Amino acid sequence: MIKYLLAGLLLASTVWAQPLDRIVAVVNDEVILESDLGEMEQTVRQQLRQREAAVPPGDILRRQVLERLIMQRIQLQRADSVGVRVGDDALNAALRQIANNNNMNLRQFRDVLQEDGYDFSYFRETIREEMIITRLRKSQVEDRVVVSDREVDNFLSTQTAQDGSEVEYQLQHILVSVPEAAAPEDVQQAQKKLEKIQALLTEGGDFAEVAAGYSDGQNALEGGALGWRKQGELPSLFAEVVPQLVVGEVSEPLRSGSGFHLVRVKDKKSQEVHLVKQTLASHILIRTNELTTDEQAENRLEQLRQRIVSGENFAELARAHSDDTGSAIDGGSLGWTSPGVMVPEFEEKMDALAIGELSDVFKSRFGWHLVKVIDRREQNMADEFKRNKAREQIRQRKIDEEMESWLRALRDEAYVEYREL
User: In sequence order, what DSSP letters do the residues of 372-406 get, joined into one string?
Assistant: First the structure.
């Protein structure tokens, strides 16, 4: 008994002898510990080195990582309050997909991570948090963005690129944030920071390094990279400015509700519109349910296939037997379809057939199929393509603008207390 008591006392003394984990920030009713900051900082350093990107000085990197952590916590807290969750099944599926993308199974991927110095449990929870934030942003912002036909019409009527090609811009961005309803001294402080940034760029400073060190934007640690954007996808604030910039040029400061912006064109390219290869096909579908098993559905289609091979009319059998009532009335015809319209497992089988050829019986997520290719063509889908492209570009632009406002509002509403770093 005494032996166990002594062991307990020794354990307690060991625990008390260890330094306590220090609080570096308070976000609403949650704390960010120095260990949290250290883990994130190590991860960001490794990511920057893997991309062969410049690593900001230690104090600057630490401040930027802390801001990223604060925004993550704020979004995770909001997700929790509105019931956004990611279960273990969805998380495991995402991890398997990441491993597959790296040509590994999950066990091999975990071993490689650990060899590279990553703690797999920490990595796993990091992916869960990223998925939660992605779902939150989708439900709170992306799914609420609507593009009307009038917006598409207005976009197309003013679009300058009418020759079937369009310029894309690779952009970098620096944001000097200004709080909503900022006091004059807040604006003055932001202007001083902006002047310092402009001076660094004028003296030949690398835009990505300056962005990583001074930008308040969400992509600061990625060098302010916004990726490739078509003209229609440019935020409204940039839409008139970016086309006037040459590669490598930085804009004059642009003011928005979020603060002051500098945008740089890192590169530009043109993109041509190609003809779309379409397939005219017919199919017969047998769905499985409580009364029809997979084996029964497959056997029924095998019998129908033999009847078609023996000379019976495909369209008549489709009208009589197909569970796809929408196409059955037209003899199983699916009409002219473009790539990406059908589910991948169906499209793969259909694309492998020659004109007039009948497929084997196969299964998709909708049931069991028999498909016959009637014809193929190259169709000029310019008008439809332009409208769809315009709609997506407008939607992406509106998402970017709404996301910026949403993130700023979340940050402004949150209680954040900094402790000494």
Answer: EEEEEEEE--HHHHHHHHHHHHHHHHHHHHHHHHH
